[in-house]
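ok so for the tutorial part 2 we go from a plain amino acid sequence to predicted C-alpha cells. step 1 is just haveing the sequence, like this:
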Amino acid sequence: MAKPSVVKIEIAPKTIFYVFATVFLAWFLWQVKAILFVFFISFILMSALSPVVDFLVKLRLPRAISVLLIYLTFIIGLVLLLVSVIPPVVSQTKDLISSLPLLLGKAVFDNYSQNITDFLSREFARVSGQALRVTVNLATGIFSIFTVLVITFYLLLNKEHFYQTLIGFFPLTQQERIKKGILRVEKKLGFWVRGQLF
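step 2 — the prediction. this is what the C-alpha cells look like for a chain of 198 residues:
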C-alpha cells in the first residue's frame, strides 16, 4: 500500500503582514468614508472653479479675493433662486389647503372628517417625535456643506502646494508622471462639472 503524500503549505510572514495591512487599510477607509467623500467633493469643486479663479488672477485680482468673489456670486444666485421659488410654492400650498374641502366635496369631507382628524393627530405625534433627528441631520448637512466650501477654498488658494504634498508620497522617479496624471484628472473633471452646470 502506498504511503499518502503530505502537502505542506508555508505562508511567509511578509504575506501575512500584507494581508493584515490590506484588511486594516480597508477597515480604516470604511471608517473615514465621510471625510474622504467631503475631500472628493471639494476636489471636484476645485477642479470646476480653478479656471475661473486663474482667469481672475490674470486680471490682477488676488487669489483669495477671486475665490471669495466666486463664492459671493454663488450665494447671491442661490438667494435669488430661493426668493423666486419659495413665495409661489407657499402661496399655492395655502390655496390648496383652503380649497381642499371644495375639491373633495362637502359630503365626502363630512363623512371622513373624524378619520382625517385622527390620522392627522397620529401623524403629528410621529413627526414631532422625529423632529430631533431631522434637526440633527439638518445641522450635519449644513456643517458638511460649510466644510466642503472651506476645504475647496483652501485647495483653490494652495493648489500647487497641495499637489506637491500629495506627490511627495511617491518615489522621486514617479513624481513627475503622477503630477501630470493628477493635472489631467483635474482638467477632465473640471470640464465635466462645467459641462453639467452650463
